């Protein structure tokens, strides 16, 4: 299939690479010139705009930071929608509020296109290996067109509903669990270091016992670094946990754990680490006077 890909960050690169590995033709757009150079080096076609990347494409995949960027990429100046043929697929893997996914899906459908609300989980490694977990919702026709793309990018697809919004709701709840796990890991590692424990030994113990989790095992080693290798930034969880709290407030449902986790990420962001890897939530505790988890 001819694919237009918008958003070639850490996750987007992996997903685009998996699609090309599966034999699909990928033309991509990103505001970062280095990302376009990467795409060209991998055999893809760099584009000067979203419209150029998606001209006459069978499908466009969105992997932008938020809903506003996704909407601009589709409907803004040089947006992708104008150049897509009738019946083409818009597959959104952007983490956004369910209401935004519903609204964006409605606009795409009104333009005569198919829309699949399909956020992902699995990290950079899962993206690069085509082993993501995808939480998708949309029409049967959208799923049918998307099938070869989902096969190339994922190890498992959860069909969450027949209309946009359900996939984003599932991702939102997932992010509550993921963010809380990182925050708990940061707190445990920081308290241990402050009390004189060796962070590496503490992490090894957590990973070998009931107190561990996938997120702690994955982020823990990076908590002991400066966090310069960014796969997902602190400010991503400020956004995602904010979405959780907004949805929970609208539903009149209490989420005290998510609220506490958000404070950890907000603290790290306000201390100047918002663009650092999300493992650097641990810096929140340093800002409160805790001893560093990072190795000298």
Biggest β-sheet strands, sense, barrel = 9 strands, mixed
Q: Total number of helical segments?
A: 13
Contiguous uncertain segments of 5+ residues: none
The CA-CA distance between the termini, in Å, is 49 Å
Which percent bin holds the helix content?
A: 40-55%
Radius of gyration: 20 Å
Please state the structural category.
alpha/beta
Counting DSSP E segments of at least 2 residues, the number of strands comes to 9
Looking at the structure, the CATH topology of the largest domain is Rossmann fold
- So what's the CATH class of the largest domain? Alpha Beta
Shape: globular
Strand content: 5-15%
Going by CATH, the architecture of the largest domain would be 3-Layer(aba) Sandwich
Question: What number is the mean pLDDT?
Answer: 96
Quickly describe the structure.
The protein is of the alpha/beta class.
Describe, in plain words, how this protein is organized in 3D.
This protein has 2 domains: 2-164, NAD(P)-binding Rossmann-like Domain (Rossmann fold); 169-287, N-(1-d-carboxylethyl)-l-norvaline Dehydrogenase, domain 2 (Orthogonal Bundle), CATH 1.10.1040.10. The protein contains 13 helices and 9 strands. The protein has helices spanning 10-21, 33-41, 50-54, 67-75, 98-110, 123-128, 140-153, 166-194, 199-207, 214-223, 234-250, 256-273, 283-287, and strands at 2-6, 25-29, 45-46, 59-62, 89-92, 114-117, 120-121, 132-138, 154-161. Strands 1, 2, 3, 4, 5, 6, 7, 8 and 9 form a 9-stranded mixed sheet that branches. α8 (166-194) crosses α11.
């Amino acid at each position: 299939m001819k694919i237009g890909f918008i958003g070639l960050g850490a996750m987007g690169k992996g997903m685009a690479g998996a699609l090309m590995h599966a034999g699909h033709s990928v033309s991509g757009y990103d505001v970062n010139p280095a990302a376009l150079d990467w795409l060209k080096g991998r055999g893809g076609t760099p584009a000067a705009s979203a419209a150029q990347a998606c001209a006459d494409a069978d499908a466009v995949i969105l992997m932008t930071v938020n809903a506003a960027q996704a909407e601009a990429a589709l409907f803004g100046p040089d947006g992708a929608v104008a150049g897509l043929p009738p019946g083409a697929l818009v597959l959104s893997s952007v983490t956004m509020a369910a209401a935004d996914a519903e609204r964006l899906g409605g606009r795409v459908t009104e333009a005569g296109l198919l829309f699949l609300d399909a956020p992902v989980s699995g990290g950079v490694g899962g993206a690069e290996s085509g082993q993501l977990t995808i939480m998708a919702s949309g029409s049967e026709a959208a799923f049918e067109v998307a099938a070869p793309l989902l096969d190339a990018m994922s190890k498992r697809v959860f069909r969450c509903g027949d209309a946009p919004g359900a996939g984003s709701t599932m991702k939102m709840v997932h992010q509550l669990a993921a963010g809380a796990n990182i925050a708990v890991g940061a707190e445990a590692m920081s308290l241990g270091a402050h009390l004189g424990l060796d962070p590496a030994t503490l992490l090894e113990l957590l990973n070998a016992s009931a107190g561990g989790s996938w997120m702690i095992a994955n982020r823990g080693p990076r908590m002991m670094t400066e966090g310069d290798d960014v796969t997902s930034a602190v400010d991503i969880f400020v956004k995602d946990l904010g979405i959780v709290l907004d949805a929970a407030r609208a539903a009149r449902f209490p989420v005290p754990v998510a609220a506490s986790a958000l404070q950890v990420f907000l603290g790290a962001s306000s201390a100047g680490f918002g663009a650092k890897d999300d493992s650097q939530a641990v810096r929140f505790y340093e800002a409160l006077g805790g001893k560093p988890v990072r190795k000298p």
